[in-house]
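User: quick one, sequence for these tokens?
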């Protein structure tokens, strides 16, 4: 039998933990060694708080955990005040490692009868609440280089649900939130995932038969959540449906689609090709917007090529930067220590250590980088990144043959590498010029190499180019 997965030394915040799913999560984590903040406002399913004449739900759960030998404290704040919930964790246990955004309410009503208040309350609790708690914990997790976050979606968000437009919008929005946090936190060992649970709780008993509510015990969801927040779980940015012992991972699918040339893109041609546009026979599984950008780049390239044929004189200025520094030795004399020297040197060390081998079959391209001091200025240095041959390499100088060439200022290049400047935005804003194979160009993303932070520059000490 495999060793028990435990949470000794970890501090977990579970919102909406006074009953149902949240209570099940809190109990399981505490049983396995975690110190737990049991958060519950004590409100009704619709979000109303009606006095405190009876024992607060959070207190009840805390006492249950303590009787079983666990460690827990209660918090009664609304999730809108995420900073107060996180403060409870820090005051009681010194830190926070795990956030499970579980709190939620319902305001089910058809679109015809929905009020702004019905909409706003749902957004306030589900979206704003999840953001507020995660935001308050985020810097703590970044500084310690560890964090696990769970956001709670719903089948209503994934597939839509009659009379739940407000709830569905918030729930699908939470997965977008998850995917962004997963990307931002990955380099700091912060992982974030989404669950869409099916369980018998106060919220689902309004739409399910009593027998089904009793059969769909929250305890059948808790093991998945516990694994997703454990050290050993590799998942990040994923969406899972779970209930009654069944667990599955969801993902998006994209049809093969139709690529129209600018000349052919008409309303009539869209109608004519509709059956192909919506045909998933040869569908793909997109993993990022880069997949879409590859198609877009092909059309931009085709449009530019067509424009060049129609008006060749207008295209004359564009190739100029390529001719600025044809020799491989000229750039080195004029740079005198550009920041890119250190960044490309770090990249070379990364590849020399064999850490980039998985990139070769994935990227299979050679890139040239023309670096300038100012936008539109003279090319001061040219670098080559070879992600096509061997284990990859980085050199200073113009490559014999590049699949794609990027031209940008040293400041913008550094911004892209650090993740401060989005490559697509840089291209659209004219901060990054691209020549060559546009499809290949889209495969070069900042995620390919470690960001040139002080820590990584020290870890992958710049090699001589």
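Assistant:
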């Amino acid at each position: 039998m495999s060793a028990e997965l435990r949470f000794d030394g970890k501090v977990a915040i579970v919102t909406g933990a006074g009953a149902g799913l949240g209570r099940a999560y809190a109990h399981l984590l505490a049983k396995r060694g975690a110190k737990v903040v049991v958060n519950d406002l004590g409100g009704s399913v619709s979000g109303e708080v009606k006095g405190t004449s009876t024992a607060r739900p959070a207190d009840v759960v805390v006492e249950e955990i303590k009787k079983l030998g666990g460690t827990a404290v209660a918090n009664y704040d609304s999730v809108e005040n995420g900073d107060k919930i996180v403060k409870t964790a820090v005051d009681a246990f010194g830190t926070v490692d795990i956030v499970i955004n579980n709190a939620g309410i319902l305001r089910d009503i058809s679109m015809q009868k929905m009020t702004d208040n019905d909409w706003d309350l749902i957004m306030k609790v589900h979206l704003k609440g999840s953001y507020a708690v995660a935001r308050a914990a985020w810097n703590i997790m970044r500084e310690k280089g560890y964090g696990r976050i769970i956001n709670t979606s719903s089948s209503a968000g994934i597939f839509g649900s009659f009379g739940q437009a407000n709830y569905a919008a918030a729930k699908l929005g939470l997965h977008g939130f998850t995917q962004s946090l997963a990307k931002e936190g990955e380099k700091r060992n912060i992982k974030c995932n989404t669950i869409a649970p099916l369980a018998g709780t106060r919220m689902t008993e309004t739409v399910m038969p009593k027998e089904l509510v009793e059969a769909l015990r929250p305890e059948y969801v808790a093991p998945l959540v516990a694994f997703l927040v454990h050290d050993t779980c590799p998942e990040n940015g994923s969406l899972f449906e779970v209930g009654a012992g069944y667990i599955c991972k969801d993902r998006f699918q994209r049809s093969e689609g139709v690529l129209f040339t600018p000349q052919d893109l008409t309303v009539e041609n869209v109608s004519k090709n509709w059956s192909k546009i919506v045909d998933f026979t040869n569908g793909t599984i997109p993993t990022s917007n880069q997949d879409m950008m590859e198609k877009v780049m092909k059309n931009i390239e085709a449009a530019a090529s067509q424009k060049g044929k129609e008006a060749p004189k207008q295209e004359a200025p564009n190739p100029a930067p390529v001719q600025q520094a044809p020799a491989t030795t000229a750039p080195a004399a004029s740079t005198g220590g550009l920041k890119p020297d250190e960044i490309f040197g770090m990249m070379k060390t990364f590849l020399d250590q064999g850490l980039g081998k998985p990139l070769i079959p994935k990227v299979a391209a050679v890139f040239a980088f023309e670096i300038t001091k100012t936008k539109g200025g003279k090319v001061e240095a040219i670098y080559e990144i070879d992600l096509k041959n061997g284990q990859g390499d980085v050199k200073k100088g113009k490559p014999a043959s590049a699949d794609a060439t990027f031209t940008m200022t040293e400041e913008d290049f550094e911004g892209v590498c650090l993740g401060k400047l989005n490559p697509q935005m840089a291209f659209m804003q004219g901060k990054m010029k691209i020549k060559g194979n546009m499809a290949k160009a889209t495969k070069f993303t900042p995620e390919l190499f470690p960001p040139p932070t002080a820590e990584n520059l020290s870890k992958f000490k710049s090699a001589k180019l």
